[in-house]
Specification:
By secondary structure, this protein is of the alpha/beta class. It is 42% helix and 16% strand. The mean pLDDT is 86.
Length: 235
């Protein structure tokens, strides 16, 4: 029964992916941030959210085990809406402007690290990857790497599924992320890397990924995210 359920879910996800291009032709294109018709990301939102030109940048204390961290802006608002539209409304094309907007954040972290660094996307949970049909962080990182340009290597893989982190407190997030990443076999490890993700909340995901990379031999690690989420009561 469980096997049948998984097959049915995979079949439904495949059907949704196959139908997406046709639905896109039938439905008017809407801005992923404000919803207005006419463009994937309207010019007003692009300017307001810091996704035009080289993008805006905010910097702050890096997660444990990392040297530097930066992001474009707050999750609460249009950036968060664009990220949710990308992930939950089957619009992987939105990864392009989000990745372009990360350029200044990546350059700021590179400067702190002392030079060029390889971009490493935080891998998506395998179950979510099957459901969506794409890895949002990998797409965002690829867009940024093409625009800068700089190297990108998918060094990490997930070892197991984790619960939704937004439902957990800070300590619970760290426990949930314990040993959840592994370095892919057959890859060459760079010394300096920048982890890339869509949202930075408590930093538990970045800390877990950084710990795995340090144990494997990476010496200097920075992090960038499209948006930073405000923590409530230290959660």
């Amino acid at each position: 029964w469980m096997q049948l359920t998984e097959r049915a879910r995979d079949a439904l996800a495949e059907l949704q992916r196959a139908a997406a291009p046709m639905l896109a032709l039938l439905a008017p294109q809407r801005c992923g941030a404000c919803g207005i018709e006419g463009a994937l990301l309207c010019s007003e939102c692009g300017d307001e959210l810091g996704l035009t030109s080289d993008g805006r940048v905010e910097v702050g204390a890096a997660p444990l085990g990392c040297t530097a961290g930066a992001w474009i802006g707050p999750y609460e608002g249009g950036l968060g809406e664009a990220v949710r539209t990308l992930k939950f409304h089957d619009l992987p094309a939105l990864a392009e402007p989000l990745g372009l907007g990360l350029r200044s954040a990546i350059r700021a972290v590179q400067q702190e690290l002392g030079g060029d660094a390889t971009l490493v996307p935080i891998p998506t949970d395998p179950a979510r990857l099957r459901d969506r049909g794409f890895d949002h962080a990998a797409l965002i990182a690829a867009a940024a790497a093409r625009a800068l340009p700089c190297a990108l290597v998918p060094l990490l893989e997930r070892t197991r599924a984790v619960p939704a982190l937004h439902t957990l407190g800070r300590a619970e997030r760290r426990r949930a992320m314990d040993r959840v990443f592994a370095v892919r076999t057959g890859v060459t490890l760079p010394q300096h890397v920048i982890l890339v993700d869509d949202i930075w909340t408590s930093g538990a995901t970045f800390e877990a990924a950084a710990g795995t990379l340090r144990a494997a031999g990476c010496t200097t690690i920075g992090v960038v995210a499209v948006a930073r989420e405000a923590l409530v009561n230290g959660a």
